[in-house]
User: Fold these one by one.
Assistant:
Number 1:
Amino acid sequence: MATVVNQERSGTGSSTDRPVLQVEDLRITYRTGRSGRAVEAVRGVSFDLYPRQALALVGESGCGKSTLALGLLRLLPRLGGISGGSIRYQPQGGGDPVDVRALEGRRLRAWRWSEVAMVFQGAMNAFNPVLRIEDQFADTIRAHAEGNGRAARPSMREVRERAAENLRAVRLEPARVLGSYPHELSGGMRQRVLIALSLVLEPQVLLMDEPTTALDLLTQRSIVDMLRELREERGFALIFISHDLALASELSDRVATMYAGRIIETGATPEVFAHPRHPYTSGLMRAVPRVRGGGPGPVSIPGSPPDLAHPPAGCAFAARCPHVRDACHETDPPLETVAVSNGPELTAHRAACLRWRELAEEAAAADDAEQAADAGQTDDAEQAELPQQKGATE
Amino acid sequence: MTTGTASADGTPLLQLDAVEQVFRTKKGDVPAVRGVDLHVNEGEVLCLVGESGCGKTTTARIAAGLAPPTGGRVLYRGRALSEMGSEEKVQYRRGVQFVHQDPYASLNPIRTVFATLAAPLRKHGLATSRKDAWEQACRLLEQVDLRPPENFLSKYPHQLSGGQRQRVAVARALTLKPSLIVADEATSMLDVSIRVGLLKMLSKLRTELGTGFVFITHDLAIARYFGTGGRIAVMYLGRVVEHGLTEEVIENPQHPYTRALLDAVPTMDDDEVGAVAGEARKLRGVDIPSLLALPSGCTFHPRCPLFREGLCDTADPPLEPLAVAGGADRDVSCHVVREAVAEAGRAS
Amino acid sequence: MTSALAPTPAIQRRGLLYRMSRSKSGMAGFVIVLLIIGMTIVAPLVMNHTIAPDPAHAWEGPSGGHLLGTDNSGRDVLKQVLLGGGTVIFVGLGAAAVTTVIAVALGSLAAYLRGWVDSALLQLTDIFMTIPQIVLLAVLGSFFQLTSPILLALLLGSFSWPVLMRSIRAQVLTLKEREFVEAARSLDLGTLRVVFVEIVPNMAGYILINFIIAVTNAIYALVGLYVLGLAPLSGANWGIMIHQAWTYGAIYIASGTPYILAPVFAIALVQLGLVMLTRSLEEVFNPRLAEG
Ligand SMILES: Nc1ncnc2c1ncn2[C@@H]1O[C@H](COP(=O)(O)OP(=O)(O)OP(=O)(O)O)[C@@H](O)[C@H]1O
Ligand SMILES: Nc1ncnc2c1ncn2[C@@H]1O[C@H](COP(=O)(O)OP(=O)(O)O)[C@@H](O)[C@H]1O
Ligand code: SF4
Ligand code: SF4
Ligand SMILES: [Mg+2]
Ligand SMILES: [Mg+2]
């Protein structure tokens, strides 16, 4: 079955596809233990995810990224629940869209992992320590085969073959890895096993929650490169959660910034990073120091996100925004399209800021001024770059 | 260039002299640090970068006197720790303070900010009364940009955010007016939005109080930002493989490992989005060799893109000065790069 | 990464009673213990201490005048039960306090200082653990007049600390690796301060629970001494009551049943209350249990 889906999928893949995941006004609420008061951690999130697309979800810790991902998979903890909105899943082999909120029991389990899979935050430290890697694969493959009501239970040989194929895809040696226990593998290897494990059922959507945060630079780099290749090869859609903007920008073709439980800016990755329209997105970008070149030093965003138990009336970012006006405290800004020039609706650049138009004009004026200033300094700039080029050509 | 100054007779503030640390474990001896020479002058920043497990923390703990090395010496103002009398030892303890990586673990959960700051002040006779301690604690909190300080003094750690906790940890390190702060990944557990604020605060301490820093990070952008004007040491498997002025090493890396690290840094400049940078990134392997079975010759050889058979896997390259065109002092441990530079020198 | 960042204060200072009240059995235990302690304090204040013997009414069954009947010399059993808790509970608390103080002091110092201090103290626990307590107490009982409850508490307490000392030592061994302890150490705050101000309060919950367990153990040990007749049988308390009831053959006399069962039941109730109390305290102090 899986191979059929795969063929169908690789045949298409243009942006005219129907979205594989349609999320509309999703709300997720936690009841907090002590007083039972409700905290809305996701407050009306909408987006469409198209086949083969990689969507990066970025934002500060606590902004609701993991909650959103868990909600999409219906994996919320006992005290959390979806309190509004809809999630629709479009099977790519054709067929009717699935209302994910209505899935229950066996059907929900069958849908999860085989259609949409997730790599959890910190999960590489959560492997069952007494199971060999091949047993972990066997569990996943068999549990699913049963969930599907398939008659034949896959044999261990079949399991090993499928596991080996996926391990090779994440550049691991099956011979060495399959027989190992989790603790015998390094963090980077465990993370790759986890990715292989999530891909073994050939899902159409893969959710990854901070898959590289705990890893060092070189391992992180190899995983990002590998994911890019895998996605081209297999054509799944990816939702990549991270608080590292630069990393997100390298892997994704679309980005969504979350703040206080909402998406406050979204669009094609190069477009958003070149022309951020929400002050929070530009703030996040300015907060990251650059490794090369001069430019202005990094600037932090003062203050902290609002308490979601008592969200403010107007713009949630107002308390920290350098461009705040009185109106911002009263009107809750909707997500508006700020640029459509770059193609179809799925890459439309949208932002939720009352003053985006003014700020865009200001930014453009500042850019012009800078360019004028730069023109006068070309000589210096070239000289400063000289040693770097030498180093690179050595 | 370097902001730090050696004292009149050229003695560095803190010096590591061929330090080694071997952990004895059930599986065998783990050589976490294998002969590291480093020094920091008064008011200077020394950044320590490298992959996880390369021995940064272990080196830092040795420098801060939290773990005695199994080999080599630590010298403070020219005096070896092992030869110090108790009076000198106290001076060293007060002079060198450590800031931990995890602000959630480094503050006592059941003590208020005031209790945390007052204890060292009272113990070392810097504050004579509770009122005096209170005033000094206020001043310390202002130094780390926690304002108004009165709001924070009676709080418990769990009532503070990560960034605020880390500031309290820094304020505590400042109580004894140290001349050197050893900061181990002090910003890596904080959100991007608050990281820069903390870095700025630390830079301010550097210029205002003249405090020296040993600053550990795996983020080269942060090393560059905080370490401007200082020196950087790149570590690999328990050794320093490249050492020089921070800007120069980052702009013009020589060791293949340093280059690979720099190429792996993700960027979000529009022209580089999604771009795959040069060949140097193409390491031959991603997995770090085990410290229990170190590769022969140059320990980087199983991964090195410049690997040359017969040379790299037989002889261990020493860390020696290398004449880099247009640059100041640089130490690099690599056979191939050394040859290339020598040839280029002959050619010109 | 985030989960590692989740703040887990060792003790949530506010709402200790609130959280305890969430465990029904814990609350019940708390109430039982409070009532019994209240009774042992109030009873001697409102009642006549000496219960006059009345041989005419010996071995009487329960009646309106004597709710739990009378003993071999005609004294009211209920009155004896109400008055006889004081010593038992006082000695239990006192002995537990002595045990806990010794165990915490020695255990944490051994773990923190390691080296020869640690080995010497571990040797000491080995020696203490190999001495059979009850025999030693019997020997001591024949040398000293163990009439003073304070002396009893000291004696019982100073023999039962080794087990707790070892588990405190194990706790401190892990706590002292925590970063805040390392920070205190590098600020040169001094051994005693680091151990007793920085480390020990972080085990407050653990210590409290073990203190209560020590109380139950001390009560058993004390009652055991009385029942075996190893402690002087002067005065009246639950232990002595059981001993007397036993030696005067209360179990062979139908109407004597309450005489022997009443103190047994009183002791069982105290122990039950204490055990239930530790359960809920465990829940309060264990952040993982408390979260759900
Ligand atoms: N089980 C829970 N009970 C109550 N509140 C919760 C629970 N889990 C998360 N929250 C709250 O929901 C919000 C979003 O949390 P979430 O874990 O999704 O953040 P995140 O964006 O993934 O952050 P990070 O980058 O740190 O992982 C936070 O305010 C958090 O405190
Ligand atoms: N107490 C210890 N016992 C055994 N091995 C250790 C210990 N501390 C560190 N190591 C090992 O030493 C190496 C270097 O560790 P560390 O200095 O913490 O690295 P880094 O700070 O660069 O991440 C690692 O392989 C680590 O597993
Ligand atoms: S709406 Fe106002 S407060 Fe919100 S981001 Fe825009 S300018 Fe800032
Ligand atoms: S010595 Fe050889 S293996 Fe080692 S870094 Fe240099 S080129 Fe690479
Ligand atoms: Mg998360
Ligand atoms: Mg470390």
Note: Residues 1-14, 287-292 of chain C have pLDDT under 50 and may be disordered.
Number 2:
Amino acid sequence: MSTLEHKLTKTNETVFTAEFHTLDGNGFEKAKKVADRFRGWFDGVNATDNTAAHAHVSNVASAIAMKQLGLEPILQVVCRDKNRLAQQADIMGASMFGVENFVALTGDDVTAGDESEARRVFDLDGPQLVRLMSTIKRGEYMSGRKIDPAPHMFIGAVENPGAPPFEYRVQRVAKKYAAGAKFLQLQICYHQDRLEKFCAGVRDAGLAGKIAIIPTIVLVKGARPLNFMHNSVPGIDVPADQIARVEKAADPAEEAYLQTLEFSQHALAQPGVRGLHITDFRNDDTLERLMTDLGRVRRITTTNEDKDDHAYSA
Amino acid sequence: MTTFIATIEHVVKGPVWGCQDCGQCVLHSTGMTCPMNCPKTLRNGPCGGVRENGHCEVKPEMKCVWLKAYDRTQDWPLPATWKAEYNHLRPPVDNRLKGTSSWKNFFTKRDRWTPTGWKNSTDESAAQGADH
Ligand code: SF4
């Protein structure tokens, strides 16, 4: 059982997950650097699948690298680029290397990326992909062909509490739960009232305690990335006063940090919230500061790789 | 005959519902809104990219198909059994049916075929397994 699954299903501990950085040239060296920053802080790290419709090192390769580097990967599987056959191959491939956490999402459209001319696939949608993961976990491919032994899987999904139609988002959670999702990573939401209503809705639907809610928090250095998210990331709306607050501050970097901390504490106080998912755009010491301010203690367990530093060098 | 039915169906459903001839119609369960008009062809609800004004991530000039479906399911006087199906998990599209008549596929029950692995997975089987 993965640490993430153990903590979420057997304890009441707050969990922290993070978004791994995208890898391109010299990917393994970069992966090592990120792993050194992340190791000991997180219960799971997302191996992203062509984030924002840009091609990068694949989700499966990133997940395997993380395993070798002592991080616990969460394999993100997106519906945009691959049909159901390729998605099953990725899940089985990652599982062969010991990956146990999986998260299914629909994904941004190809038009959000830098190759808008590409064919969009969406052979399955997000909830169907969750059900497909449950099918594999049960020991069958989509066709019914047996997988013996069945891979061990802890399955999650994603939802956006900040995009319309708001009440319907909760019904989507119920659907993903029924399809087999046990945890739910939320997209970043800069409207606290929307997050509150969403979490209350999940509770009122009787799903609190059944599906662990993990809102996303983003570490940014100033107002520019806030403006970027507001203007360019589909489904993300950042209220003008939140942008102005950072923009007009005497020390924007400090104000941006305080804003993140405040949103983190607010999110953790909502019913059904079991942890936070952190996207770090700052790459400075505020990651450590945030984790410490939230009461997290860094725990580094010695892995074989740590004992022999050269075991995983490329 | 089969082609004839498909043609009639296309002529009727094309202009009114924007039918994309997927051959496995779910209009009744989606507030008479064809999910195949969603640029991502999502059959189980909206993606996370819906814009602040309720318009589509991919086509900003178009209202998100799933906002329409949601509003209509609530507001239109549709049969209760249809409305009840709104939140059902619709199975993956059977791409072999593309271009065939969903009316015929409905009467022959061909449109209810799903792969064995999908069929064997139920809400109950999916709910299990958190504790092993
Ligand atoms: S915004 Fe609505 S119509 Fe557009 S891709 Fe997403 S779900 Fe489909």
Note: The mean pLDDT of chain B is 83.
